[in-house]
UniProtKB/TrEMBL annotation:
It comes from Pseudarthrobacter enclensis. It holds the Pfam family Pur_DNA_glyco. GO terms for molecular function: alkylbase DNA N-glycosylase activity; DNA binding. Residues 207-231 are annotated as: Disordered. Keywords: DNA damage, DNA repair, Glycosidase, Hydrolase. CDD domains: AAG (cd00540). This is Putative 3-methyladenine DNA glycosylase. Belongs to the DNA glycosylase MPG family. NCBIfam families: 3mg, PRK00802.1-3.
Length: 231
DNA sequence: CACCAGATGTGCT
DNA sequence: GCACATCTGGTGT
């Protein structure tokens, strides 16, 4: 029985140059591996979310970090596919995306959850608070922590050492979809149901709707007052 | 299950 | 300057 050869890194990059929303189901079941000085950890992805860029005029994505254009932080999202976009949030967490789409088009898949399939001991050391093996990478910041990723890894190529990405040979299982987690405003609505997960997988993070923030009151400048910059 | 403190980079004003 | 954040873990009901 001939098995089609696994795509090499550049073929994989070609695949990843597609639309993140179409790629999401293919990435479910894929394995991302990171080898560090401390050892290797690999995660089989079970939950991802697509984020698009401002250039998608049909469906500009108000939930995306790129909605208001390029900045120093989101620059990797505008770069070539197959690279990592890692950002820091809530004062103590990192989240990891794999960049999709051709260079110049900002889109990515946020890695929300997975199953640690290699380096469970190291992942446990990195995540001492996890009580069960299924908790090790069950959430975007948990997944980044288990893989040992920080903003220092943002922009690095996920398809070259010390990283590796392997797609599943075929569909990994039934895929469900729904609104994205933690995205406030319209970007978190059913209209942007760009969260995808393997139906019934125990490592998928528990759904939590975005916290509804009462629009913070921004005092209007009193009439007659002017603002000017220090210099 | 609900609620909430934590702690700081980032981008808008 | 300051509000917000693609979240997590702990506590209490």
């Amino acid at each position: 029985m001939d098995v089609p050869p696994a795509p090499d890194a550049e073929q994989l990059r070609g695949i990843l140059s597609g639309d993140a929303r179409d790629l999401a189901p293919q990435l479910l079941g894929a394995v991302l591996r990171h080898e560090s000085r401390d050892g290797a950890v690999a995660v089989r992805l079970t939950e991802v979310e697509a984020y698009m860029g401002p250039e998608d005029s049909l469906h500009p994505d108000p939930g995306s970090h790129t909605y208001r254009g390029p900045t120093a932080r989101n620059a990797p999202m505008f770069g070539p596919p197959g690279h990592l976009y890692v950002y820091f949030t809530y004062g103590m967490h990192h989240c990891t995306n794999i960049v999709c789409g051709p260079a110049g088009a900002a889109s990515a898949l946020l890695l929300r959850a997975g199953e640690v399939v290699e380096g469970v001991e190291l992942a446990r050391l990195r995540r001492p608070t996890s009580k069960h093996r299924s908790d090790l990478a069950s959430g975007p910041a948990r997944l980044a922590k288990a893989l040992g990723l920080t903003t220092a890894d943002s922009g690095r190529d996920a398809l070259a050492p010390p990283f590796a990405l392997v797609l599943p040979p075929g569909p990994a299982g039934d895929v469900s979809s729904g609104p994205r987690v933690g995205v406030s405003g319209a970007g978190g609505s059913e209209e942007y149901a760009w969260r995808f997960w393997l139906t019934g997988d125990p490592t998928v993070s528990r759904y939590k709707p975005a916290v509804q923030r009462p629009r913070k009151h921004r005092p209007a400048p009193a009439p007659g007052t002017a603002r000017f910059h220090q210099r």
